[in-house]
Specification:
Chain lengths: 109, 111, 245
């Protein structure tokens, strides 16, 4: 059993992963949770490289970070848009800014 | 050996955290996030058991192939679950994002 | 910013009980994990033994598309099923488009998308001897598709629903077709003849990468195309993959 500088790296990486996942599962703000999840995916790609699994690392970097994040963000946006658009609410400017400039507004009002 | 143990325990803790969040939280997006974290934990354990340090032989490729397919399937499952939760929101009377009735969100927005 | 009311700070009785159960489970599983005998369970020697008969040099690709190809075939079908499920659930179009997309974004995507297609093709080609393969290439194609969808290029509105559907089923179709050809000629499902195994694997991988890319982009778009000309899908952009590999 050899302890080396890599063991320190392992421990740091594992602690970071645990801290990130704890935060993303417990934060109040769901948007923040999604962003934390994207960074979690990138760190997982780093972990796969450390575990000598470059194939998995490539897939995780492209899928876990590149595709899952946009999927969550678009779902979040779709839910929000539904609440605003379908129920015909006039939402104030702040909300509009939060969710990007929303073309639905013309239909909502 | 120590590396395998560190990452196995990390995967185990990720799995446990995800499971707890999956049950305790009622928010649909957070549940999907929790399932993703759980699956990541399982993948981590699988890969960690296959790990052999550099210079001590080849890494076992079978778990790698299994995890590779697993990642792709988990992404497609996530997409399907997200679409399903959007659909639930469309037919629901409660604002699932803020966990209160839709009417209250309406009041907040117009205020 | 969407605030959610979180789990209350003080857990109620059932939640505490559940927390206890989860902790017990983790401790038990950790005990089991620490008692797995290490080093003797691997299949790496078996894989290395049959490596030169598989037609590819990368062990992971050999496992994915030769030794355990049946798994991979079913998995590609699972992806197709996910798209069918998504299409039958929702009719709402793309996630709300931003009204004005900045020209910088358009320019960057215009530059980036072909490069990503090239990288995807290279990854599929590289899969036979290094890290890479159908899933990685397909994932990058899917990411390119997402970029194009987000930027709302006018070209994506001209892609017909039929070509989109063909792109979706191409991978599973090739996989199943080659599987049955092998069953017919060699007597084994997916038992490629040894001398041409590499080419069969490359063919399957290219078709699957294209299908996976289209599948992921379709899952992101989320809605079913109506018959006729429909807004969706960067299938035209993804054709370089077939040409290059």
């Amino acid at each position: 059993m050899i302890y080396s500088i890599l063991t320190l790296f392992d421990i740091l990486l594992a602690l970071t992963l645990l801290w990130l996942s704890w935060n993303l599962l417990n934060t109040e703000d769901i948007f923040k949770a999604v962003v934390l999840f994207i960074s979690f995916g990138l760190l997982m790609a780093l972990t796969w490289v450390r575990m000598r699994a470059p194939d998995v690392a490539l897939a995780e970097a492209a899928l876990g970070a590149g595709l899952t994040g946009p999927l969550f963000l678009s779902a979040l946006r779709r839910m929000n848009r539904f609440l605003k658009g379908e129920r015909r609410l006039d939402c104030d400017e702040n909300r509009e800014k939060d969710n990007g400039k929303n073309p639905k507004q013309t239909q909502a009002t | 050996m120590i590396t395998t143990q560190i990452y196995s325990i990390t995967g185990l803790l990720l799995f446990g955290m995800g499971l707890f969040t999956l049950i305790v939280h009622s928010h649909p997006l957070r549940k999907i996030l929790a399932v993703n974290v759980m699956s990541t934990g399982v993948f981590l354990i699988l890969i960690a058991t296959a790990y052999t340090p550099l210079g001590q032989g080849e890494v076992d490729p079978v778990p790698h192939a299994m995890v590779l397919t697993g990642i792709v399937v988990s992404v497609s499952v996530t997409a399907l679950a997200l679409i399903l939760s959007c659909r639930v929101q469309e037919t629901s009377n409660r604002d699932l994002l803020r966990e209160k009735p839709v009417a209250e969100t309406a009041k907040e927005c117009t205020r | 910013m969407v605030k959610t009311r979180n789990r209350p700070k003080r857990l109620d009785g059932f939640q505490r009980l559940f927390l206890l159960l989860v902790i017990c489970m983790i401790i038990l599983l950790g005990y089991i994990l620490s008692n797995i005998p290490g080093g003797t369970l691997g299949l790496e020697d078996t894989v290395a033994e049959f490596q030169d008969r598989s037609g590819v040099e990368s062990p992971v690709t050999a496992v994915l598309l030769n030794f355990r190809a049946y798994d991979t075939m079913l998995e590609v079908v699972v992806l197709l099923l996910a798209v069918i499920g998504a299409w039958s659930l929702t009719k709402s179009p793309l996630p709300g488009q931003v009204a004005d997309i900045s020209p910088i974004q358009m320019g960057v995507v215009r530059l980036l998308a072909p490069v990503m297609c090239l990288v995807a093709a290279y990854l599929v080609w590289q899969g036979s001897h290094l890290a890479g393969g159908a899933f990685q290439g397909g994932a990058i194609l899917g990411a390119a598709g997402v970029l194009i969808l987000v930027s709302d290029f006018p070209q994506i509105h001209t892609i017909s629903a039929l070509s989109l559907r063909i792109g979706l089923v191409l991978g599973p179709l090739f996989f199943v077709g080659i599987a049955f050809c092998c069953l017919f000629f060699t007597g084994d499902l997916l038992g490629y003849p040894e001398e041409t195994a590499g080419w069969f694997i490359l063919l399957i991988e290219s078709a699957c990468a294209l299908s996976i890319g289209v599948t992921l982009a379709a899952l992101f778009a989320g809605s079913r195309p109506e018959s006729g000309v429909q807004k969706k899908q960067p299938a035209v952009k993804q054709s370089p993959d077939r040409g290059n590999s």
